[in-house]
What does this fold into?
Amino acid sequence: MTLLILYGNPYFVSLPPVFIRRYNAWMNNVKYVFVTGGVTSSLGKGIIAASLAKLLQAQKFRVTIQKFDPYINVDPGTLNPYEHGECFVTEDGAETDLDLGHYERFLNVNTSQANNVTTGRVYKSVIEKERKGEFLGKTVQVIPHITNEIKNRMMLLGNTGDYDIIITEIGGTVGDIESLPYIESVRQLVWELGKSKVVVIHLTLVPYLASSGELKTKPTQHSVKLLMESGLSADILVCRTDRPLGAEIRHKIALYGNVYPDDVIESLDVCTIYDVPLKMLEEGLDRQVLKKVGIDSENEVDLFHWKDFLYKIKNPKKKIRIGLVGKYVELTDSYKSILESFIHAGAKLHTQVDVEFIHSADINDSSVDSILEGLDAVLVAPGFGSRAINGKLIAVRYVRENSIPFLGICLGMQIAVIEYARNHHGILGADSTERNPNTDFPIIDLMTKQKKIFAKGGTMRLGSWDCTLSEDSLVAKSYGTTSIRERHRHRYEVNSQLVDQIFGENLQIVGVNPETDLAEVIEISNHPWFVGVQFHPEYKSTVSQPHPLFVSFIGAGIKHRERRNTHL
Ligand code: GLN
It folds into this structure.
């Protein structure tokens, strides 16, 4: 049985899947753009996809982006941040690839579980169908069963009728064994839906060889050839380069890459990812894509706010230095959304935010002063496990006692609570059961519900939850409201049975979940700016809507710097 959408209503019918896919694409009149990558990873497919989406959105097209990742994890939730960087969390609680963060930040629209698919998820659902007997005794194979599942998922968002254009980024690099089913699925979709509905963009690298003083096109030629061996030809080649391509190189790439010269798009290295949409506009990426699917867009590309934002980040009036204390600082992608939130909030306040990455293992009683002194604000980052917690506790004590603005996110908030219990109240054994299951004062503990859960994947408190803020709190002033919704990703909570023993006078719970009464936000009232949040505000900051908490935090950093300067 297959899902058929007829005039917006879903029907389950027994028709060949190819018929259903053609019918859905025709009914919804959706165009599909695929972004593949060649030569090497880390060329920025996600940013190219997000930039194209931004340009199309600026012409009033309804557009979304999805990412298909070739790894076997069902989602990236169980991955160590050192593997692929931060795990981004959507409103509906999906743990996803960090590129979804870029999509949301560029487009200011929410993504969901459907926007990120992995090989693990594809196989899981095919195997579940097999166990239910849905394949009617057939041998279940990569082709057609896995590719059918992939194609259906590639078209899922298009079938909702909510979008004109769906951009799909294929993770990995062409030629990887694990990417093959995805490339084959795109090939089949081009055949099923026709060239007028599908565009294939291939992102490659054009390196400069210093010894010969030349840009080299051979890697691009090979990459295009590799794609063709899988039966897929690129319509547009986006060439990442550190210097302009020039007419001759463009011609060569077009000739050997089998595309028209106008379809060779130069993607020059730029100083901020937020420059890329403008570069792509100059190169005509959006125009070429629309041309291929027969759309003659007369709409103006309205990037007024985007340009204003860019102007502000490039022409700051002030500068501050924030310390980011974490244990994954060797790979700054682990904190991607936090770093981008600083940029958004900084732009709003015309301020350049320089980030000092501080490994929590480097902080001890004798080093703390020299490491944190001189910073305008400190953020203690989210994290898991017990490694390098002591450094975080010492950092929090330092900023609390020295009136340095502090924001603790998730684990950062939990650390702030433990620190206060230990050093202010003298409860030296206070701890989180994540780190010390035998603590006699488990001020951070698992919720009863979590105690019965043993599987790790997708079982945390995830996604968006309501929170009610106390009216006279600093956070309520920062948000300008007392009811907020923020995204979560954690198992441990402030232990409600022990809160009376440490909260009250100066340390206060100023945000609670209205249903469970769990502590979501804490503040210290006799400190200029000391806030801990159990949720992750960084997932909701976008270019057009910088997060109010980050804006307030950066604002506190600016004040702290001014205060310090007047005392010097
Ligand atoms: N490890 C902590 C928990 O699970 C904090 C998680 C986080 O910082 N995202 O509760």
User: Anything to note?
Assistant: The chain has 20 helices and 25 strands.
